[in-house]
Amino acid sequence: MSLSARSYFLLIMFLIVTNLGGCNSHATFEDNSFENCFNDFLDPGEACDSVYGVDQFQEGDSCEARGYAGGTLWCYDCTVVTSNCIPAATDCSPFTDEGCEDTVCYFDPNAGTTFCADMGGGFEGEACDVPSDCASLMTCLVGTCRRVCNPGATDECQNDAECMYQDWGNEDIGLCPLPFVGCDPVVGIGCDNAGDACYLQNARGDGFCSANVGGEPTGGPCGADVDCQPGNVCLQLTDPSQSYCTRLCDASSWCDGGSAWCAYHPAARVGFCVDPELSCDPLNSTTCPNGSACVVVNTYGTTTCMYTHGIQEGEACDLFNRCEAGLYCATDLDWKCHRLCQAMADCNPDECFEMQDWPQNNGQAGYCRPPQ
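and the corresponding structure tokens:
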């Protein structure tokens, strides 16, 4: 090919390529190519993208829309990942795996149903997103692998702890209390170093070891848990200007021989002792002193007057991070604040779930939650 002919050929090819490029300069990519991925914008035709750190999906896309029972989609390299979706409900046994073929039967506490899935590797107390992140005989509750059991059984949980019934719509499946990690803050023991004592670390009942300096007895003023004698937690009750050392308790270590009540939830491992004289009406906090609120402190309906942390409806809560007055921390459901109620009309469109275990309320109070 002569030089002039070769130059003419290259010119023709250049014009063809540039014209094609011009035709596609505003093209919509129907696949998840990297040309428009990671641009902090969910482009048309793009299955998903991370928009300023938050996964975004096309309208209507969800685990449920894809045929799953629930769960959460996530986005990886602009590709939708369904590993955190919960498979459709299957009638199976989470105790024997009967009803599943070469897979494990899991209980979904949010839906109250069972499903089959490949076994995960999470052990009791480890982090999880969905039940199938955990090993066999487990479920996932509030991001933690929990052992399922037959309610009332005393030979299925660690340390012969009683399997506790849960108000989640399936009376045949209960939960084991979480085993203590490290030391035991309720009695203050379990530390390796002489002179250390165990203090409460979080609402799950985990403990940490710190120097035992004696500290204030139960009822004494405090500013932190380590200001108190072991076995206490520092709480602000009804005094607006001062917190006090308050006795911890659990299923086997109750309060003052029964003269006080234990604000203890079976799905957790630790609670605190409350004065029966401060029992109150959770639907009317005006009887509580100094502007404190009437708080329902466990699934048995135990109430007491104490200051809250202003946590609002729908926000995460626990026994020590309490909801605003008129709300209930649903530790039997999702560990979030729900409105207290007396009738269905108080909850529309949700239902007013009457807690059968609330004897102090005489059937007068429940909390709002979606229909089960």
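(Above: one complete record from the training split.) Helices lie at 3-23.
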